Amino acid sequence: MYVIIVGGGQVGYSLARLLMSEKHEVLIVEKDQQRYNKLSEEWGEQVILGDGTELDTLMDMGVNRADVLVAVTGTDQDNLIICQMAKILYLIPKTIARVNDPKNEEIFQSLGVDATVSATRIIGSLIEEKIDAGMFIPLLALRGGEVEIFQTQLSSDSPLVNKKISKLSLPQDCIIIAALRESKVIIPKGDTILREKDTIITLVGKEGKKTLKKLFL
What we know:
- By secondary structure, the chain is an alpha/beta fold.
- Helices cover 29% and strands 27% of the residues.
- The protein has 2 domains: 2-117, NAD(P)-binding Rossmann-like Domain (Rossmann fold, 3-Layer(aba) Sandwich); 136-216, Regulator of K+ conductance, C-terminal domain (Alpha-Beta Plaits, 2-Layer Sandwich), CATH 3.30.70.
- α5 links the parallel β5 and β6.
- The mean pLDDT is 83.
């Protein structure tokens, strides 16, 4: 399967790494020169420099043969435009957009985006659930259990407390999706520092589950 990911931030990077581990063909599009340089050092020609909202960039990425396009930039408007262009002009079978503001989900769907992902909405629905420190709770299994989503709360003696996410030795097939801190939902970046009592939501492949539990607990 050929998957184009527009946006090479933490979400795009982690998604690409997961898909590549499953042997999919992946192309990342990133418009920030500094971020592009970092990604291309790791993945070479699987990363291109360009603005996904521009037709020339879409043509350069071979969008007409893609099976899926995922727009995960930090801007809802850009994600919508990218998905609409891919769907209307190039008839891509499936488009998926990251929605940073949950209020925009309905708009995206009404304008033809096949699927939207709002971490704020998904994680926000878990805020009211009580979870004791140290519990490692499965929330969702995907692909027949090959990928799972877990939540756990960091205790005071957790080795992750007061550490930046970029400094964690996470398994290759693991992504930290979000952190719940009191009533706030934090979409993590590399420089996000984890705190005591944070509830951490992670997506992890089957092979990395044991390693992840040891790391967190």
